[in-house]
Structures are given as C-alpha cells and as structure tokens.
Amino acid sequence: MARAATEHRFGDGIFIRGLIEIGNHCRCDCLYCGIRAGNSDTRRYRLSRDTILDCCRFGYDRGFRTFVLQGGEDPVYDHGVLTDIIEAIRNDFPDVAITLSVGERERSVYAEWRRAGADRYLLRHETANLEHYARLHPPAQTWENRRRCLHDLQDLGYQTGGGFMVGSPYQTDDDLAADILFIRDLDPAMVGIGPFIPHHASPFRDFPPGDVGTTLFLLSLLRLLFPRVLLPATTALGSLVPDGREQGILAGANVVMPNLTPADTRGSYDLYDNKLSDGAEAGENLVALKQRLHRIGRQVVVSRGDYV
Question: Which end of the chain lies in a sparser environment, N or C, as judged by fewer CB atoms within 10 Å?
Fold first, then answer.
C-alpha cells in the first residue's frame, strides 16, 4: 500500500541529497553516539570552508541540487563561521537547497542561518517519551530544549525534518506509537528514521541493533499517514543489510543521501559501527546508485526535491 501511495504521488522518481559531513567534534554526550564528547578514541576533524565548497562543486557537476551539511554540535562552527559557509554556497550555487543538520542552537542562530540562505533543517526528535529521552542522554540535554528547537525552526520558515531511531535502548512499542503521534502534530516536511546500530565505544555497545522489518513497517506507516512527506531510505538501513536502501524505497521512501564527504575523512564520522560510506552510498559512484535504483523500477530525479 505504501509503495502504491509513493508511486501515485511521486511516480518512479527518487530525490538525491548530497551529504557533506562537515565535522565530528561534538559538545554533546548522547549515550548511543560514536562521536559523543566522551569518546576519546575517535579521530576528530573539521572540513574547511574551501573543502566544503569543493564538495558542493563536485556534487553540483553530478546533478545534486540539495546539499546537507551535517555535523556534531561543534562550538567552532559557531553562527558566524557557518553563516559565511552558507552565504558562499548560496552565492556559488543559487539554485540549490541548503540543508543543515548541526543540532540544537539558539533561535537567533537559526534565524541568522535562515537569512544567510539555509532552506531546511534536520533535527530528529529521537523520542516523544520524556523518560526515554532521559535514558538516551545526560541530564544536561533535555527533551524540552529539543522540542523548542523544532518549533523555532518551523516558526522561522525552515522545511523541518524530525525522526527517531527504531530499536533504540529501552524503547517500547508504546514509545513508537507516541513518536507517530508526535510527528502528526509536528507536521514536518521530512521524517528520518532508521534502525539503531550500536557503537563499540558507546555505553550502549552491548545493545542489539534495531529490527529491519520493524523499520520498514514504520516507513510504510509514515508514508500512508503522511503521503507528501520526504522520507529517506537511510544509511543505517543500508549498513545493516546489503539491499537496505532498496527495501526502504520499496516500503515508501523517496529520498537517498549519497555521501560527498572527502573519502579520506568519511571513516571518522562514525556515528555507529560499520557505517556504510562507499559503493552506491558514495557521491562519486552515482552511476552505481542509478543502476541499483533502475533494478527496482526507480530513477534519480535531478531537482531540489522540495516539500510540496
């Protein structure tokens, strides 16, 4: 049913977003994350302004019309630094959509980035259960602030994306139901969900990964409940099973995010173990992605892929 609903609204087209992982420094200590502040074993990096623009140029020449700047909550990428990068991308590539995914910030910072030319912002709500949220984060990180950020983003005119992990530690079916209801009330332009995958250097390293079947079911449910929503087949799905991306698309997803981060850096953005970043997941291997999509009756759409 979800597949039919997707085809009815979007045909056989799949929107591509060029993912640029701008840095893995993070002030937060989320208990599930491989780039958490408390992990002293990861190799930290930040991409320079020129490197980010080079990634955009490489992607633009290959048909990408949306760039997603994703990173940890890094104080060095403060509002001024990132504002300059956003303005440079907008100046060099005026027809693209600029998406940010750099965590919780003050409303004034979100407003500055919006004025500079950012169009979209991805910030998973993670869980609608306050107690569950507290079990995934240290006390300094609160559900109330996460919710405040999401509402600020929408109020400022961003196309806003929410979402959650499937199978995160201590999650219940009631939590998942509450997540669906939260998304209904939030009414985001995009919903990103994927299975939880543990990281060996996190406190949750011994928890099992989320279930692929449950993730696919929830993707389908989201498509049926919110027919217009932009719904990615996430890297986590592709990291757990070889055809995870294709399964996600056939379950109702209509977005994929090939990685444009420099190849020698991608391995350091290790949110979870065995994170996929090569093959058809790589931005430079767009031909392979197109071939895999063609085999399931889909094709890449060269456009911004706005929420309409």
Answer: C
Q: What are the b/e assignments for 269-305, b being 16+ CB within 10 Å?
A: bbbbeebbbeebbbbeebeebbebbeeeebebbeebb
Handedness of CA 280, 281, 285, 290 (dihedral sign): positive
Burial class (CB in 10 A: 0-12, 13-18, 19+), 80: exposed
DSSP 284: G
- pLDDT, tens digit, for every residue of 285-304? 888 999 999 999 999 998 99
Output the CA angle 107-234-41, nearest 5 degrees: 75
For residues 300 and 220, the answer to whether their CB atoms sit within 8 Å is: no
- DSSP alpha helix (H) spans, 27-100: 49-61, 79-92
Is the whole-model pTM more than 0.70? yes
The 10 Å Cβ neighbour count of residue 208 is 10
Residue 193's beta-bridge partner residues?
164
Contacts of 54 (CB under 8 A, 6+ apart): none
